[in-house]
Write a structure and sequence with these properties.
This protein is α+β, with helices and mostly antiparallel strands and 388 residues long. 36% of the residues lie in helices and 27% in strands. The chain is built from 10 helices and 19 strands. The strands form 5 sheets. A 6-stranded mixed β-sheet has the order 1-2-6-3-7-17, with helices on both faces. Helix 1 runs parallel beside helix 8. The relative contact order is 0.19.
Length: 388
């Protein structure tokens, strides 16, 4: 695969990449202008579905949760397929002002980088194959997934990968703002909603009764004092606390939302058990605690010498980019956990993801598209050679 990457980079006619970059940015803005909060992706999914149809993909469909699928048949129908995917949901509510603002080489817009440019890169790859009249070596499944952000808990890719797993031999996952990095591992994530319940009462008349809110913050203090290892990297965060009815009311209920993460599934299991023990022992005669698992993302990784990973890094090196290996929580977690070779790469650079002033840089889009095209073609050849 190394020689093929070198060959593709230096013999392919890249003169039309600027035009493809401009097309991809324009397409990304069109996607961005369609609100798509997690669990409310239908309208954006319908738009992507139409693009898949217009670009001649086969078996185009949108499933019950609004994942969108399209097949580009390859020359060798028996070899494992390549799955190219990007999530279409965003963290922003439907009523968010999605106005675009351009400043030089920067374009500002909520959700434009994460992940409308990932979606644009995926569709631009198909456009490049059309423009160059290329039939891939083996099948490519293009998949736009839902439910990647927040409480979506990767529901889209769980469904999509289960549907295609028997046909797929490798996965390229696209994140709009990740150019220059190659994600080779998915970190394990466990998320809990912890609720305290008690009888409540008047803060003066019933003083002395246990308060759900008091008990909850005491539990939160104990949890935040749990020793967290630096190797493997592990984290713990209470991101939201809600509860109480008024300043003069003994709170009858309260809740917090807890996020646990680790590079190691084993370390995460240890931390989970510790936290659950603390919750169990916090129960008293007056205050009871309950838990609801609101997220459980499995860990996984690709071997550091796998051609899919080394190829992705090789391309960046040839482009003069100081590449970085990363791990994180992305759609890639699911195929990685299943043992399917998977990398997550980016289309451009930018900043302020998940903020209203999120922005992308326009110049790196050329290199991002080039990396995707070369890695995609090289991976297709690799999958075909493995089948033989």
């Amino acid at each position: 695969m190394k020689d093929l990457v070198e060959h593709l980079l230096h013999t392919t006619d890249w003169t039309d990449l600027k035009r493809l970059r401009d097309w991809a940015i324009d397409f990304g803005i069109k996607v961005q202008q369609i609100p798509a909060p997690t669990f409310e992706e239908r309208v954006r999914a319908e738009f992507v579905e139409q693009q898949f149809d217009d670009m001649g993909l086969q078996h185009v469909e949108r499933d019950d949760i609004n994942n969108v699928y399209g097949l580009l048949p390859g020359q060798d129908r028996n070899a494992p397929a390549l799955m190219v995917m990007a999530h279409i949901d965003t963290v922003f509510p439907a009523e968010t002002d999605l106005t675009i603002r351009e400043e030089g080489d920067l374009i500002y817009g909520p959700g434009l980088g994460d992940n409308c440019m990932g979606v644009a890169g995926m569709v631009a790859f198909r456009k490049w194959l059309i423009d160059h009249d290329i039939t891939p070596a083996t099948d490519i499944w293009f998949v736009a997934t839902v439910g990647e952000e927040g409480l979506g808990d990767l529901c889209g890719v769980r469904t999509a990968f289960k549907k295609l797993e028997d046909r797929v031999g490798a996965v390229i996952n696209l994140e709009g703002l990740a150019f220059g990095y190659v994600y080779h591992a998915g970190i394990a994530v466990h998320r809990l909603k912890v609720t305290a319940t008690s009888g409540g009462g008047h803060s003066w008349v019933h003083y002395g009764r246990e308060s759900s809110l008091h008990a909850l913050v005491q539990l939160a203090t104990r949890i935040t004092h749990v020793a967290i290892p630096t190797e493997p990297r592990t984290s713990l965060n209470i991101g939201v606390i809600n509860g109480g009815q008024g300043i003069n009311v003994i709170a009858p209920s309260a809740e917090f939302w807890l996020d646990l993460r680790s590079e190691s599934q084993i370390e995460l299991e240890r931390l989970k058990q510790h936290v659950h023990r603390l919750i169990e022992t916090a129960n008293t005669n007056e205050v009871t605690f309950s838990t609801e698992v609101v997220g459980d993302r499995p860990a996984g990784s690709i071997a550091l010498d796998h051609p899919l990973l080394t190829g992705a890094l090789q391309i960046l090196e040839q482009q003069g980019v100081n590449a970085g290996l990363e791990n994180g929580s992305t759609d890639g977690n699911i195929p990685l956990h299943a043992g399917c070779p998977t990398v997550t790469i980016g289309i451009t650079c930018g900043g302020n993801a998940h903020r209203l002033d999120e922005y992308i840089e326009t110049k790196p889009v050329i290199q991002g598209l080039q990396q995707l095209i070369v890695l995609g073609l090289a991976t297709l050849d690799y999958l075909t050679s493995q089948e033989q």
